Amino acid sequence: MSRGEDAVVSRRTVELFVSGLLSIVGIGLAISNWKLGASWAADGPQPGYFPFLLSTMLALASLYGVFDALRGRHGARGDAAFVKRDEFVRVLQVLVPTILFCLATEFLGIYVAGFLLIAGFMRYIGESRWISCVAVALVLMASLFWCFEIEFQVPMPKGPIEDRLGY
Amino acid sequence: MDGTAIDSLLHGFVVLLTFKNMLLMMVGIILGIFVGVLPGLGGPNGVALLLPLTFTMDPTGAIVLLSCIYWGALFGGAITSILFNIPGEAWSVATTFDGYPMAQQGRAGEALTAAFTASFFGALAAVLLITFLAPLVARFALRFGPPEFFAVYFLTFCSFVGMGKEARHKILISMLIGFLLAAVGMDTVGGSLRMTFGFSDLLRGFDFLVAVIGLFGLSEILLTMEEKLAFEGKQAKLDLKVVWRTWKSLPRYWATLIRSAIAGCWLGITPGGAIAASFMGYGLAKRFSRDPDSFGTGRIEGVLAPETAAHAAGTSALLPMLALGIPGSGTAAVLLGGLMIWGLQPGPLLFVEHADFVWGLIASMYLGNIAGLILVLATVPLFAAILRVPFPTIASSVIVLCAIGAYAVHGAVFDIWLMVLFGVVGYVFKKLNYPLAPLALALVLGDRAEDAFRQTMIASRGNLTVFWSNSLVGSITSLALLLLLWPVLSDIMKRLRKSGDGVPTGAASG
Amino acid sequence: MNARFVAALFGAACFASLPALAAWEPTKPVEFVVPAGAGGASDQMARTIQGIVQKYNLMKQPFIIALKGGASGAEGLMAMKQAAGDPHKIIVAQSSLYTIPFATNLPFSWKDLTPVTLMAMDEFVLWDNAELPYRTTAEFLAAAKKVSATEPMKMGGTGSKREDHILTAFIESKAGVKFAYIPYKSGGEAATQLVGKHTDANVNNPSENIAQWRANQVRALCVFDKERLPYKAKVTETQSWADIPTCKETGLDIDYLMLRGIFIPGGGTAEQVEFYDQLMRKVAATAEWKDYMEKNALKEAPFGPAALKAFLEKDEPLHKQLMTEAKFLAAP
């Protein structure tokens, strides 16, 4: 068994984490909606009535989820890997660039950030030649720019470069 | 009455059949397909964006252009759903359930053909309804008050939820999350803000499209990457013959098509909307299928049903707009604004005062959908060929498109982050076998159902029997409850039959 | 000599205003924020302005309409607040400028924006279903009074704790009646629900009920203004807008109007305000705008930032008072 087959985290742990998180969210929302008014007034339910009911149910169902995961009835399936090391690495290979892309969008605008994402992704994951990475990314983002900014006039987040060009 | 409708329709064709109008029609459909394919840039946006261009045109030409954008968007929404699991339009979420698995199996051409043909069938059913029954249907739509609306939403919900292979508490949790997300923001009935915690980015609530682009689209890229799969389908034959082969198999599914067309027309008029219709169509097809468990693995009915219903609803939603002046959908609302700017007053008198315009529009519905079908079918090989592009190129472009889509909905960078968050949630949920469809449905119907319920309660002063107060609302509510309890009922019946045969029933427990 | 002095002053003023006019104009597309849903009254107004500006080429840069109707329009208001200092955004606002902050504690005040000008005033009309037997306001209110305690009449309107709801509460306190107010998502929905007899009456703006009025499905009882509407062309077979009596004439002493005004984000300079004010005046001078005003039975309003500010300073306290009386204020 190679190291890539090792589990990063077991399925049971993730189940516990998700259920636990959801039950905390459920309890928090229930309190917030209770404060808003969650009773049945003369003219029907108050604003917080349904959300209160829903969040209470969410808390209860998630607590059942916690209990279900702890009980460990699922045996081998529960102890199985949620994600294996090499799988996890591959997921991060998409997720991390995506998050960087969003960050870049805040500062550089979506067009430049998108260009960097596509070109970089094609180069490092797809191992294409630099020239074709740049060409494909440039053509794609330029046509999106033409489509949204010029034809449809839907403004997208833009950065200093577009500002220089007068957009 | 039929005779006059046909006469008026023929007159409408005469009005329409000018070179200029036909040209506008083609331009509109191509633009519409474009708008439908780009996620986030939905039908209402597409129509709204071109509205100013039409101020100087004559009303008939203007409505032909704009309504054809709408038809194009209805067709185009299915394309990215099937190819990449990203709903191009909110109403094509249900199309991803089986359309995307089909594409993964190398049957993208078949799925696209089925989707387009089903869309056309749905639209045709709705246009026939508009042609012959407009006044009747308009009067029927007036009978819908808050209790009836609630009953319709309830029915949609019941026809979809109730079955699933996943653990019960996970179905419930997914649904509850959807309902809670729908409740964030301004509460129409109470006039107060709920669960915004002082963040102005939460004011507008969680948009359905932002959520589904992340939950379905981005999460799918994460999963594909994890499994080291490239998009399969490279070896599939991509020629126009696939259209013919798919068509030959379609008559077999006549019941699904008709059922979905009826559900779609109904929801378009009432107005539950195309999104609700697509879910209801899918839910009904699954419920009435002999093999419901195979849905979600690439069944052609799973593509036919939601597409027929969505297109039928999208088309028939124009009827209440024309005849009553109430928009049945977001796009209809924009068209309504357009009509007023062109100097037409939608409402009961429109059919009398501007017959040329109305029948020209109805004739354009026939021609526009035929032209649309031909155009999109011709492009099936082209779209299917996109799948041959190497995975890294596709994946990164799809991420950019997801971000553009999420941003375009409200023009907020916050929504891009939200979309990424939903992507991660979708990935974790899929791996833990939480179903995502109940979340999507609850998110789209939740607040509308709650509004209708609370409006009903104000009017009836808290009396719940109002849901059986007349034959219309009573029969919808009862039908909904029947559908909801159907799995339990059929289970009981099976057990009864089994115990009748002398087979012990205790074996199932434990 | 005195006259010459005045003339000189006038000349100087003209000179001064010329470079001022040229001093600022948009350098990129202007985002026109609509704090309401697609197809509604605000959206239509914005699109009409956009169409006129485009047709007569009144501005070099285009208008781009941005619908920000989330949370009853609070989304659009907050977007404008956050855009302080950006003169390439304008908003067409109405009384939700203060009703939403009062009802929800939203951290927003119209003082966060820079007022440009009023475009028009929107009227409210009391409508009932044409098949009901009440032909006048008095008959209607008498009938409403009778059932107030047992099964109150249903009044439809747009949203909760907003203009329609406030006006309904105003009627309730003036006439000593009680309604069951049912909030809908839009005025169009309120209109259809009235025709379908799911409600008994509504207080829609003229434009929201005109289609149903022309089809004789609803009846206009009175208009909530000091004087009648000026438009004398027949709208229905028998009536024009000017034929609707004022509510005061019919014994219900209420006048209530809603502004439709243009603002730019906070920190707008005098030159920027001047540019948009002049632009809107040019829009208002066109035949298309006059036609739009008549079709929607809108009331003319004085132009310029001073008039808008004066109106807001009067209208905001009025709403605070009405909403306090109706117990619509959010708990602090």
The outline of chain A comes out as flat
Instruction: Summarize the amount of helix of chain A as a percent range.
Output: over 70%
Order of helices and strands of chain C: HEHEHEHEEHEHEHEHEEHHH
Structural class of chain C: alpha/beta
Strand order of the largest sheet of chain C: 2-1-3-10-4
Q: What's the number of extended β-strand segments of chain A?
A: 4
Q: How far is the N terminus from the C terminus of chain C?
A: 62 Å
Q: Specify the biggest β-sheet of chain A.
A: 2 strands, antiparallel
Biggest interface pair, residues each?
A: A-B, 66 and 63 residues
Q: Tell me, what's the shape of chain C? A: globular
Q: What is the mean pLDDT of chain C?
A: 89
Number of distinct helices of chain A = 7
Overview of this structure, please?
The complex is a heterotrimer of chains A (167), B (510) and C (332). In chain A, helix 1 (11-36) packs antiparallel against helix 2 (49-71), helix 4 packs antiparallel against helix 5 (110-124) and helix 5 packs antiparallel against helix 6. Chain A is built from 7 helices and 4 strands. The mean pLDDT of chain A is 87. With 167 residues, chain A is mainly alpha-helical. Chain A folds into 2 domains: 3-79; 89-164, no CATH class. Chain A is flat, with a radius of gyration of 24 Å. Chain B has one domain (2-504). Chain B has helices at 2-16, 19-37, 43-50, 59-84, 93-104, 108-142, 146-160, 168-183, 208-226, 241-249, 254-269, 273-288, 301-316, 318-324, 330-341, 350-353, 355-378, 380-385, 391-410, 413-431, 437-460, 471-500; strands spanning 185-186, 193-194. Chain B has a two-stranded antiparallel sheet. In chain B, a hairpin with a 6-residue loop joins strand 1 (185-186) and strand 2 (193-194). In chain B, helix 5 runs antiparallel to helix 13, helix 7 packs across helix 12 and helix 8 (168-183) crosses helix 21 (437-460). The N and C termini of chain B lie far apart (64 Å). The relative contact order of chain B is 0.18. Residues 502-510 of chain B have low confidence and may be disordered. In chain C, strands 2-1-3-10-4 form a 5-stranded mixed sheet, with helices on both faces. A 5-stranded mixed sheet of chain C has the order 7-6-8-5-9, with helices on both faces. In chain C, helix 4 runs parallel beside helix 11 (305-325). Chains in contact: A-B, A-C, B-C. At the A-B interface, helix 1, strand 3, helix 2, helix 4 and helix 5 of A face helix 3, helix 8, helix 9, helix 19 and helix 20 of B.
